């Protein structure tokens, strides 16, 4: 595949197995919907337990005991609270996160030119992923706020049905700051998380293809390439969980009735950095590692099935 555009100039959009046209970006957006919507919705019980461990650590001491408490008090439906806003919110977030990452990465490489793109590839990964996440979080924020409120409100105090919960958030927006009250903490959690997720994923894939699988990438079977994708995604996810956990704790604590009207700084100083950084971290490492591995695997499987090739390489 030539790296030159039809005009004869070097163009990042022609670096892969197929040209990066609007059809390519649209398919990447759909891949992002599948990757994030399915995986986040599928681990709703882990998310419910994690949020409650952050908000009420005295009652929800660990993952297993937390899930057992929820099932005992609220039945099986208690651990699936927030499934609707999770699925819709993260589908929208995935669409912009993955789709716009491809767009911004190509744009920034073309702005930098061939030589600087090769020299500063990691900086382009970071800039592309951060830019994409800004838009992804605007789409996610109202649904994330609704999800946290559903998951952390004491049983019977807030509607758990998707439509009723959205209506209630809208009705009480003066106190809940719906729909964008959590946008700044969400950005502070998600932008570093996504930068780490994409940077470490691309870096680990690159290491696999330069140190372990040293033949040309195209010579390996799709199953091998997708295995590398999953392993790289899982390892990247572990790093992401640690990087973004303090901000994630703040987002959860903002949904707690006792913290109504308090600033982010006040919540953080009252809780203490050690608690923000460690409470629920083990669960989140397990959750985000698995989640990120599967997200990249679904995304790359979809791309491969569309003939677009897997992400990353030498």
Rg measurement, Å:
20 Å
- The CATH first-level class comes to Mainly Alpha
- Global mean pLDDT: 90
- Give the number of DSSP strands: 0
Residue runs with pLDDT of under 50 for 5 or more positions = none
Overall form: elongated
Fourth CATH level, the homologous superfamily: Mitochondrial carrier domain
Helix amount, in percent? over 70%
Q: Helical stretch count?
A: 12
Strand residue content: under 5%
SSE series? HHHHHHHHHHHH
Number of domains: 1
At the third CATH level, what is the topology name? Mitochondrial carrier fold
Keywords:
12 helices; 0% strand; 314 residues; mainly alpha; single chain; Mitochondrial carrier fold; SLC25A3/Pic2/Mir1-like
What does this structure look like?
By secondary structure, the chain is mostly helical. The chain has one domain (15-306): Mitochondrial carrier fold. The chain has helices at 22-42, 44-55, 63-74, 83-119, 121-152, 162-171, 173-176, 183-212, 222-254, 264-271, 273-278, 281-305. α8 (183-212) runs antiparallel to α9 (222-254) and α9 packs across α12. The mean pLDDT is 90.
């Amino acid at each position: 595949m030539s790296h030159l555009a039809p005009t004869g100039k070097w163009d990042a959009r022609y670096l892969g197995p197929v040209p990066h046209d609007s059809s390519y970006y649209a398919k990447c957006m759909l891949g992002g919907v599948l990757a994030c919507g399915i995986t986040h919705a599928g681990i709703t019980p882990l998310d419910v337990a994690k949020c409650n461990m952050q908000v009420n650590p005295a009652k929800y001491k660990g993952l297993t005991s937390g899930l057992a408490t929820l099932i005992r008090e609220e039945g099986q439906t208690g651990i699936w609270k927030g499934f609707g806003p999770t699925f819709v919110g993260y589908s929208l977030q995935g669409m912009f996160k993955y789709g716009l990452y491809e767009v911004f990465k190509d744009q920034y490489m073309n702005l930098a030119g061939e030589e600087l793109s090769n020299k500063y590839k990691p900086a382009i990964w970071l800039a592309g992923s951060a830019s994409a996440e800004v838009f992804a979080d605007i789409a996610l924020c109202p649904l994330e706020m609704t999800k946290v409120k559903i998951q952390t409100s004491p049983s019977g105090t807030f509607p758990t049905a998707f439509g009723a919960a959205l209506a209630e958030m809208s009705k009480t927006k003066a106190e809940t700051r719906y729909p964008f009250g959590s946008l700044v903490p969400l950005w502070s959690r998600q932008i570093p998380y996504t930068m780490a997720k994409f940077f470490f994923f691309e870096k680990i894939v690159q290491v696999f293809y330069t140190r372990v699988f040293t033949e040309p990438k195209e010579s390996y079977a799709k199953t091998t390439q997708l295995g590398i994708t999953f392993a790289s995604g899982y390892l990247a996810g572990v790093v992401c969980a640690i990087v973004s956990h303090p901000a994630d704790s703040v987002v959860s604590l903002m949904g707690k009735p006792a913290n109504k009207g308090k600033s982010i700084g006040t919540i953080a100083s009252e809780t203490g950095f050690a608690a923000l950084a460690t409470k629920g971290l083990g669960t989140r490492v397990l959750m985000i590692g698995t989640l990120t591995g599967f997200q990249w695997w679904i995304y790359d499987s979809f791309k491969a099935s569309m003939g677009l090739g897997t992400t990353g390489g030498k």
